[in-house]
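User: Structure please.
Assistant: Input sequence and predicted structure:
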Amino acid sequence: MMRAVLSRLGQMVFVLFGISVLVFAIFFATPGADPTARIAGRGASPDVVARVRAEYGFDRSLPVQYAMMMKKLFVTRDLTSYVNHGQRVVPEVLQAAPVTGSLVLFGAFFWVGGALVFGLIAATCAGRWPDRVVMTLGLVGLSMPVFWLGETVNLLTQSRWHDSLFFRWVPPLGYTPFHDSPWGWARALLLPSLTLAVSFIGFYARVLRNDLLMAMRDDSVRTARAKGVGPVALWLRYGLQLSWTGLVSLFGLDFAQLLGGGALLVEVVFALPGVGRLTYQALATLDLPLIMATVMYAAFFVVLTNAVVDGVYVLLDPRLRGSRHG
């Protein structure tokens, strides 16, 4: 057990190191990315430029600059922005993380619940009109770009129909912390999370339908049916148990990617101050410290979630437990 944990930790460190080196190298290989002129200000004298280069360490070799940045990011945690001078990037990312976490958790609730309902309907009615309707709706959801859907939702709920009975409750764009107002927090996240969940519901429902139909041909299901197990128990107990592993893998990767800033478009459209929007602002201004902090944050959650998914596999699939012990 300890060996497996140490192996996972080693993989995590190696992945984070590789990503950080790649981000750092790409930044300094990008034309016009040198932050010295932006920090010194337009029309700065050569003396001021030289002082800025010395103060920020830009006059040193790239490996030394990389080591200094990693030390300030992970050890002293006082890495400051190149754009907003003196503003530390680690607290900025930590402040944005709860917003993204709330959005993704809310969205995951909708897309997992919706996928279970529509996937079961499509699988149990395979080949009939409910199956065709669900699969068509899923394809429509997959085909709608999330930024277009978000803008459409804003157009209807924030301006055109905002004063109607149905959308009068919709708050202005932005975010309300949970500790300020739980009801305001839920209202602010409802439409963004539904917008985020639409394409995932369509995709997961299609995957679940196919997995359920394959599971119903498994020998264990045939044996249970021969013993007189009813159709509801067959689908909900045996079918879902055999279909969970594929969905868990998809969910783990998607959840980690969104938690790391993959919900960028939704956050920008709905003015949510999350990690995705922070990443968007950092890329727009070529703010390397902020880019590095958000990328490391995202990479950490992706690597960590992969490890968690492997553990969940073993818990969900008895066949894997047997192979591990053997």
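The chain has 14 helices and no strands.
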